[in-house]
Each structure stands twice: as structure tokens, then as C-alpha cells.
From TrEMBL:
PANTHER family listed in its UniProt record: PROGRAMMED CELL DEATH PROTEIN 5
GO CC term (a single one): nucleus
Ranges where the record places region Disordered: 1-20
Protein's organism: Stentor coeruleus
The family this protein is said to belong to: Belongs to the PDCD5 family.
Residue spans of biased composition, Basic and acidic residues class: 8-20
One Pfam family it belongs to: dsDNA_bind
Entry protein name: Programmed cell death protein 5
Amino acid sequence: MEQFTNPEIKRMQEENAKAAEEQREMLLTQILTPQAKERLGRVALVKEEKAREVEKTLLTLAMNRQLPGKVSEDQLISMLEKAETSQKSLKIVRRKGFDSDSDDLEGL
């Protein structure tokens, strides 16, 4: 079994990450129109998480052969809007005057 040193492992991981990124870019170029790809790039500058979510959805659809053709800019805008409305938010509401621990201290 071959022994790899720490720098070699790091280099191999970086090469794998670079190859995966290149493959992702190539696939996006194949499934998006130039205008849609440009828009997705602009969205990624502002909201990278949202753009990555839509990219992941697009790549999944493409790999499952569920895209009828190239995705247009209008279709991408629709997907981005749906992604925005589907993001969940957590709202914490604090109640005033309620403390469950206050009853425990009365007997002390």
C-alpha cells in the first residue's frame, strides 16, 4: 500500500476539487443559454448560496434527463424566484413573564 505525505494528499484533494469544479462549469454551459449562465453568475456574486442551490437543482435535473433543452434566462429567473420563496426562516418568539425555573427555586 502506498504511503502519501500530507502535502501530497492536499495536492490530490485540490486537484480533485478543481476537476469537479471544471466538470460542473462544463455541464452548466451545456444546459444553460449564455444569457442564463451570465445571470446565474451575477446572482452568485450577491447570493452564492442561492445560486449554488439552483445549480444543484439544474444539475440533478440534467443528470436525470428531465430537462427538455437548454434553460433560458426566463426559466432561470423562475427557478431563482422559487428558490427564494422556498427558503425557510426561523422566528423565535420570547414570552415575557414566563419562567419555568422560578417554581423550582421557591422551596430553597
